[in-house]
Specification:
Cell_Proc_Reg/RNA_Proc, transmembrane, 524 residues, Transferase(Phosphotransferase), domain 1, 19% strand, alpha+beta, Tumour Suppressor Smad4, 14 helices
């Protein structure tokens, strides 16, 4: 089955390996090409581009790109994860390939920057290979800059954790009306070098933390411990007590919240002692204030006025002592910095529109898991989803009439023949003498060994993480090998990776040692 994009048909064949084939929906002739670009690509291996061959059959030209041993980027994105540094490096490779295209007399708009037409080596996205089509005009194809921006947004969903302001600065540059790839290349290089430096500093700090206990342990082994054992009532509130759990400041768990007495108050946050510079500035300010105060003292003043000036002096000194030494429990730099980071994260979410793709903290995940186990007697929680309902459902009498949804009414009015025609197909898995039936309830059904990413887990040695996919297209079903290492057999015929094969009743699919039979007893 052929698919179309930008006015081209694309399919996959075996020709001295595995090839991606492009052909026009109408006739494609050599006069439609940029001849210099076509000769340049056929005569040279250009870094970052898939090798290209052209073939003319019946005055119709087809383009073949060799993808043997390559993996489609869209398939990697289903299971792969980027670090922020790897994300910058991947985009830097793509931007560098496009920026260097003028060296080979290639145009920017000839690139197809879509994950279905970008390939990588195995499980490593370090060296992306791009598709370049040397056609003068491509119908309905977005400009290269627009494609690059959309690709960067889609790839950001694969980042495990986003930190710092570099990501938002990159998106700001990509969202400008016009940008040059050499500018994006320079920006990505700067972000990548800063991420590498941050990683080096964090690794160095971790090594220092690991070395300190080692030195202390060596000293403690060489000298006997003569310290007195403190009573248990002292260790109960110790900083190193096993019974205490670390948690972020200002956040209370549900258990801790229930155990707090309403009459108790949290202790004020501890402050660092004032530095010498703070004391010096405080003393200078106090001295200036006292000089200003006593400059207004009249030369011939009464005895009561002297007491008033002395009292004002003591009040100023007391205020200085409170400010420098005690310092009231006002929000400090740490809290303001944390608040600023929160606003920065909110700006990134609003700018990217990828809030649902951002990683959820482990605390929230644990809370969601605990909610799934809750069952409310008032209808506030639903057993199937474990999520809080928007409004509590009022109690209903047992003899009350149930309100059916429109789709339920439509299903109830369908004749038996129509219901039989919509019967779902099944897969019959034959493995080691055992037979298992699997109902295909989804439009896309994936078989592989990566639990959590596939619909049917096959853990036999030699099965790829994402091995085979069964796709429903309108009223027909197709099978597609997802670039597996050991391949798949369709009716005892080797499947070309990523090519769609039709499935009829009784069709067989062989995945290593497991044979799947497609069963679909539907009305013709």
């Amino acid at each position: 089955m052929e698919h179309s994009i930008y006015g081209f048909h694309y399919d996959y064949i075996r020709h001295r390996g595995t090839c991606l084939v492009l052909s026009r929906t109408d006739t494609l002739r050599y006069e439609h090409f940029e001849r210099i670009e076509l000769r340049m690509m056929e005569a040279n291996e250009i870094p970052g581009l898939l090798p290209l061959e052209s073939e003319e059959i019946d005055l119709n030209v087809k383009l073949r790109y060799e993808i043997t041993g390559k993996r489609m980027l869209s398939q990697w994105m289903k299971t792969g994860r980027f670090t922020l540094e790897d994300y910058y490096r991947f985009l830097l490779k793509c931007a560098g390939t496009i920026d260097d295209s003028k060296t080979y007399m290639l145009r920017e708009d000839g690139y197809w920057l879509h994950e279905h037409f970008m390939f990588i080596d195995g499980d490593s996205p370090d060296e992306p290979m791009l598709v370049y089509v040397p056609i003068r005009i491509a119908d309905a194809k977005p400009p290269a800059r627009e494609q690059f921006k959309e690709l960067a947004l889609r790839l950001s969903a694969c980042i495990g954790r986003i930190e710092g302001s570099g990501f938002s600065s990159l998106l700001s540059a990509l969202h400008r009306d016009t940008f040059e790839f050499h500018e994006i290349r320079k920006l990505l290089g700067t972000l990548l070098s800063s991420e590498t430096a941050n990683e080096f500093r964090s690794d160095r700090n971790e090594n220092l933390v690991k070395e300190v206990p080692t030195v202390w342990q060596a000293a403690s082994e060489s000298e006997p411990d003569i310290r007195m054992q403190a009573p248990s009532w002292i260790n109960a509130g110790s900083e190193y007590g096993d019974s205490r759990q670390e948690q972020a400041p200002g956040i209370l768990t549900a258990e801790a919240n229930d155990s707090i007495d309403p009459g108790q108050h949290a202790a004020p946050n501890e402050r660092e002692p004032p530095t010498g510079r703070q004391r010096l500035l405080g003393g200078a300010a106090a001295g200036a204030g006292l000089l200003l105060l006593w400059s207004f003292y009249p030369p011939e003043a009464e005895e009561g006025l002297l007491s008033i000036w002395t009292g004002l002096t003591l009040l100023m000194l007391d205020a200085l002592f409170v400010w420098v030494m005690l310092r009231p429990n006002w929000p400090g730099k740490g809290k303001l910095h944390a608040l600023a980071q929160t606003y920065t994260a909110m700006e990134e979410r609003e700018m990217t529109g990828l809030t649902s793709y951002l990683s959820v903290p482990a605390k929230n995940q644990q809370t969601a898991v605990s909610r799934e186990a809750e069952v409310s007697t008032e209808g506030v929680y639903e057993r199937s989803t474990g999520l809080r309902a928007e409004a509590a459902t009022p109690p209903r009498r047992q003899d009350a009439t149930v309100l059916l949804r429109p789709e339920a009414l439509a299903a109830a009015g369908q004749p038996a023949e129509q219901k039989a025609a919509e019967r779902l197909p099944e897969l019959e898995a034959h493995k080691g003498g055992a037979v298992e039936r699997i109902r295909l309830t989804r439009d896309r059904f994936v078989i592989g060994r990566e639990q959590g990413m596939v619909d049917y887990t096959e853990e036999t040695a030699g099965v790829s993480k994402l091995h085979l996919e069964i796709v429903r297209e309108h009223t027909e079903y197709f099978a597609k090998d997802l670039g597996s290492k050991n391949g798949t057999l369709w009716n005892n015929e080797p499947m070309v990776p990523y090519k769609w094969y039709p499935l009829k009743d009784g069709a067989s699919l062989q995945v290593v040692n497991t044979r799947f039979v497609f069963l679909w007893d539907h009305a013709e």
